[in-house]
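My current task is to audit a protein record that another person submitted. Alongside the sequence sits a line of tokens, each denoting a local backbone shape. Where you disagree with what is written, explain briefly why. This is what I was given:
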Amino acid sequence: MTAFDFACTGVRADPYAAGPALVFRLRVTASPGTRVHALALRCQIRIEPARRGYGDAEARALSDLFGERSRWGSSLNPVQFAQVPVMVQGFTGETETDLVVPCTYDMDIASTRYFNALEEGEVPLLMLFSGTAFTGARGFHVEPVPWDKEAAFRMPVKTWREMVEQHFPGSGWLRLPRDAMDALLDYRSRQALPSWEATVDQLLRAAGERTA
């Protein structure tokens, strides 16, 4: 059976994507001399939050995910980020390919809340690989890619922020149920408010959450 190894060598925000997307650069290595015709991979990406430190402001922002810092010894569990397919073209020995990961700025998603809470540093990620390899010097042999193949990578927080800023410059994104959205639209119309920012600002002032 062909032995495969995987490594992530970098990541960048895709400035030309229709929606937020990160592009990870993968290096794939096969057994020496083995001809790989194609590699159909599945990649699961997890955040490993226990593998970095956090400032006080970050800890407060993460309390809804992991609870108070005093509980983090048992609550700082991995967070699912993405699961994406990638088709690697034929190669012998070693090759590199892009792994495109569509992202969201939906704050109901745990991974988005985690990324948004970080002020600086790196995000510890773990990539878990599986799939099917088509190999052979003559003809095709079909082989599984073992489930134990993985690669650790530390993504700069600034890369995530750059991606978000490309698609939501200076703003955030909030998903609401249809009935709540209809009620807000009705309130904005009745109050003759010029923007959503003004609508939320007036509601916060009415609730006593904003005075300036």
About this structure: The mean pLDDT is 92. The chain has two domains: 4-167, 176-212. The chain is about 25% helix and 40% strand. The helical segments are 56-61, 63-66, 72-75, 110-117, 157-167, 178-191, 196-206.
